[in-house]
Design goal:
Layout: H1 21-42, H2 47-50, H3 54-64, H4 67-88, H5 100-110, H6 113-126, E1 131-138, E2 143-150, E3 161-167, H7 174-177, H8 181-188, H9 194-205
Length: about 210
């Protein structure tokens, strides 16, 4: 079955003023759609891989994808999964500090929320070129970690589980923030849906 573009769980303007409506429209309907379309095209010659859930596909892409399509699946499969997660962990009336399991996990790994925010921000600022600043669950270490990765490389390829992250490709922020990536990251924190993130963390801990 072909992969499909997910519907945004809110309107294009729902994250205003932090992320503008035009960026959300282009980002979700053009950029994300291109990843889905190109992923499906790449997998036309590998129906066994096309039948896998996207998470499992990314976990095995480096070992099971034919060389002729491997990089295309990494790029576009990662782009599809990364963006699907990105839309889900944001929402209107978001932001603030997390409570419950997310807060506990952050404090256990980073000491306090302010230090955690700064670590995630610096990862986003120091990611040269395009990429993501990720907060992942490391099932081996059984803790949250903050990492950065280039392009659309998915943490799933390393056995890590992305819980949430910020897209620092220029197309994610340039219409509103131009070259001011720090301002974009600062604003992005105001969009976070901590309930959704808590659900992602629970799923990651459960090994699903």
């Amino acid at each position: 079955m072909a992969f499909t573009l997910p519907q945004l769980p809110y309107g294009f303007d729902a994250l205003e003023p932090h992320i503008d409506a035009k960026t959300m429209e282009i980002h979700s309907q053009k950029h994300h759609k291109a990843y889905v379309d190109n992923l499906n095209k790449a997998l036309e010659s590998a129906p066994d891989l096309a039948a896998l859930p996207i998470e499992e596909l990314l976990r095995v892409v480096k070992t099971k994808a034919p060389d002729a399509i491997k990089q295309a699946v990494i790029n576009n499969g990662g782009g599809h999964h990364n963006h699907s997660l990105f839309w889900e962990i944001m929402g209107p009336h978001g932001g603030g500090e997390p409570t419950g399991a997310v807060a506990d996990a952050i404090h256990a790994s980073f000491g306090d929320f302010a230090k955690f925010k700064e670590t995630v921000k610096q990862n986003g600022l120091t990611q040269f070129g395009s990429g993501w600043s990720w907060v992942v669950w490391n099932p081996t270490a059984t803790k949250l970690e903050a990492i950065k990765r280039p392009n659309q490389d998915s943490p799933l390829m390393e056995g890590l589980v992305p819980v949430f992250g910020v897209d620092v490709w220029e197309h994610a922020y340039y219409l509103k923030y131009q070259n001011l990536r720090p301002s974009y990251i600062d604003a992005w924190w105001n969009t976070l849906n901590w309930k959704a993130i808590e659900a992602k963390l629970a799923t990651a801990k459960a090994g699903k």
